[in-house]
Design a protein that fits this description.
alpha+beta, five-stranded antiparallel sheet, two-stranded antiparallel sheet, 9 strands, binds adenosine-5'-diphosphate
């Protein structure tokens, strides 16, 4: 549910394709679907629930279904970030992610993204229990609200945390960035699918920062560490990467996350003896 733009470095957006048609029609979504989307008619548009930030619709067409999200107030930069992340993960050909097709501005303000529609399998319905409280985008953009105490303690941790990374080599890799259960599913054939990324290149361990709401079991971790073996000191750094998300949640969703963040910081200050 994060607005991905908050976490993305400012990448150049995916190659923009040119339209033969006008720059800003009344309905650029329909226009794209009926031109580059290769459909000749849209037979039905049905809303899809479950998102926190945007409106989502399924566009049924004679060229197959399309998944479309719109946002009435935020400009295309947020969806450009999402498309860039989806595109980067799609190109790895390692796990199924929806292929992004088009991002643009709406003539009434706001923006849209058109992407591949994925028919989810039965597992999706079990993912519905969102652990995060959905809030309006306006609130999500509000200024950092950390209290002075947590800020000072956090700064002390940042100054001293290099000790947690001694003797390891970090090779930046592509991270989903918001890997919690609401963004993990499977398609009809049971293949895993990941959605709604906040991608960046970083330390592979950072991907477990959201594990407190991902519901990964032992089998998952065993399989993961077979492919990417644990680095020395992994257990010591694990909470540090969770702390990033707790602070983010504190900032986005309110004070309920403050004590968890503070107790992780306190534990680290004790461990590091600073
Ligand atoms: P938001 O940006 O508002 O958080 P999401 O990306 O979570 O919205 O999408 C809203 C809902 O649409 C999700 O619950 C998900 O089940 C569904 N969804 C997301 N991507 C696709 C897709 N490519 N195909 C079909 N359904 C999708």
């Amino acid at each position: 549910c994060y607005p991905s733009i908050l976490f993305l470095p400012r990448f150049r957006f995916l190659k923009r394709r040119r339209f033969a048609v006008v720059a800003m029609s009344n309905d650029p979504i329909t226009e794209w679907i009926l031109s580059e989307g290769k459909a000749t008619q849209i037979t039905r548009i049905s809303p899809i629930g479950g998102g926190c930030i945007n409106r989502a619709n399924r566009y049924e067409t004679d060229a197959g279904p399309f998944f479309v999200k719109t946002n009435r107030s935020i400009g295309p930069s947020m969806f450009e970030g999402e498309a860039l992340g989806l595109g980067a993960m799609y190109e790895t050909e390692t796990i199924r992610v929806p292929r992004p097709f088009k991002v643009g501005a709406l003539p009434t303000g706001g923006s849209y993204i058109i992407m591949e529609y994925i028919e989810f399998g039965a597992a999706r319905s079990n993912q519905g229990g969102s652990l995060l409280k959905c809030i309006k985008p306006g609130n999500q953009q509000k200024a950092l609200a950390l209290t002075w105490t947590i800020q000072l303690a956090g700064q002390r941790l940042v100054k001293n945390m290099a000790a947690l990374f001694e003797n390891i080599v970090i090779e930046p890799c592509l991270l989903h960035g918001d890997l919690w259960s609401g963004n993990i599913s499977s398609d009809k054939s049971g293949e895993p699918v990941i959605l709604d990324p906040a991608c960046y290149y970083g330390h592979s361990e950072a991907e477990f920062g959201m594990s407190w709401c991902a519901g990964f079991g032992g089998a998952f971790y065993n399989a993961y560490f077979e492919v990417t073996p644990k680095q020395a000191g992994f257990e010591k750094r694990r909470d540090l990467y969770m702390l990033y998300h707790y602070l983010n949640h504190y900032n986005l969703f309110g004070s309920g996350y403050r004590s968890s963040a503070m107790s992780i910081i306190d534990d680290y200050l004790r461990l590091l003896n600073v």
